[in-house]
Each structure stands twice: as C-alpha cells, then as structure tokens.
Amino acid sequence: MVCVLIIIGLPIVKPANSKGIGLQIETNDSNAFWQAAILGNELPENQKELILYGKELIQHTSIYLGPKGRVSQISNGMNCQNCHLDVGTKIWGNNYGAVYANYPKYRARSGKVEDIYKRINDCIERSLNGKALAIESKEMQAIKSYIEYIGKDVKKGSKPKGSGIFEVPFLDRASNPIKGKELYEVKCVTCHQLDGQGKMKDSSEEYLYPPLWGPNSYTIGAGLFRMSRFAGYIKYNMPLGASFNEPQLSNEEAWDIAAFVNSQPHPSKDISADWPKIEEKPIDHPFGPYADTFSEIQHKFGPFKPIDLAKKQQTKK
Q: Which of 18, 91, 121, 146 could be bridged to 162 by S-S, CB 3.0 to 4.6 A?
C-alpha cells in the first residue's frame, strides 16, 4: 500500500450526500482523533533499534517472514500494513491506536483474556495464514515495541476516535455480491486485478497491491472476513487515495464490494474453537451455530438490523 499523508485542519461541516458519501463525523479537528507517537529523535535509546525494526517488519513483513523471507518463511506473502494501513497509523485504517491501551483484555472469539502477543500472532496466523512467532523472538519483541510506542499516549482502557475500523451503518437490505462485482470491476481492478490476486513488486518479495482472495489472501478466520469489518475497512480507505475526509465509496457501495470480495475463495482455517459462548458471536460471523434462529446466509450478508434488534431484545431479558 502507498502511505497517505492526512492533514487535519478546521472542522468540516459538509454533510454526507444522499448516497452516504461524505463526512459522517462531527469534526476533523486534529485534537479529536488519535495520532501516532512520532518516531523521531525522542525514541528511547535502549529501544530505538527494536522499535524501528518493528516498523520495518510491519511495513515489509513478506521480505522478512514471507515465502522468500530473509529471517523465516512463515507467512503468505502479504505485509501487515496491507491490512493495517500506513504502518498501522492511518485514521480508521485498521490502525493500532487502541491496542496497547487495551491489552491484555477478554476476547469473546477465544473466550479468554489475551495479551498483546496473542493478538499479534492471531494476525499472523489468520490474516497472513502463517505460523506463530515465538514470544521471545526478536521479531515478536520488535513488533510489540513498535505497537506499544506509537500508542503510548493513549489512556489505558480507552479507545480514541479514529482508531481501528469505522463502523459503517447497517443497510436496510442484504449486501449484494452481484452489485459488488460490478463495482469492483470499476473501482478496484487497477490495483487488485480482475482476478483479485493483486500485483507483486518487481523484486517478487512482496506485493505492491495485495490479493483480496485466493491462496495468498486472508483466511476465513481473519477479522476482515466478517462483512462489517471489511465494509468498514474499505469505506474510508479504498480505492487508493481515499481517506475519512475524502471518501470515494458510499455506504452501500462499501457493503456490496465487501459482499463480493468475501464471497470469493479464501484459505481455510480451523475455527472450531472460536466463540465458545455462541451468544457472544458477532451477528455477521458467517458460520454457525448461532444463539438465534436467523439463517447462516443472513448472518453473512444481512440484512443485519433484524438480527441486531433481536440480540438487543434478548440481552434485555
């Protein structure tokens, strides 16, 4: 991915248009959004090398840990920043803003309290279809150090605005993979190609643009395989050059493209141990069983409002 410089200035009052394109936030005042700690001269000398190596690993994961990795060959060839844009610093770009402030924490997917090491390895195993890094390895310690440093100014237990992925409002209908295919062929093929396999750099060590499906893409166990996560991810980040204050997709377009991409083949993953308490399973998790009577296809594509309402009513009881 190409890094995008986001300049945040005075409040913007332009409303979203009828298609949902435009700001859906109150302001673009820089004080309202998370900003990553700067990696400059103030880096602690005893951690500087490790932090900078962590940034390098996230930016160029495949060079070090991919199929032709210089350190180890444990992942599918994607880079961490293919999912965590601008080395995990972009506003609503699946950034690391709230990670250090909130780990260790309970995660419903495993039904356990997880530390930051488990969270990092989850990404490697699920999104990069790889093998876990040893906690004591230099690579694990470097990635952890980088994530901790750029999020060091976030108050413990808080989630600053703009961190993670934007939550796109549910549609009144199911997301439509057929419409999504048409949109993909107009808005996405230049980078990700018609076959969804992305484009490699001339070095063949890493992707210039990552695959969105197929054997080298994220697995069915990755967070982005959930429709709401992928729709939220592309809403303010795609096509290339889009940002939260200059979106290029409407809400409906984001949902439909997500439906198309996540209807294509993705690598399998053993997720049999996920969501041990099925009542805690997200409403858009595409695999049963569920604690309600809605179908698996509705849990994948929607409409999600009826499922969400039923879950909230059940919670009240």
A: 91
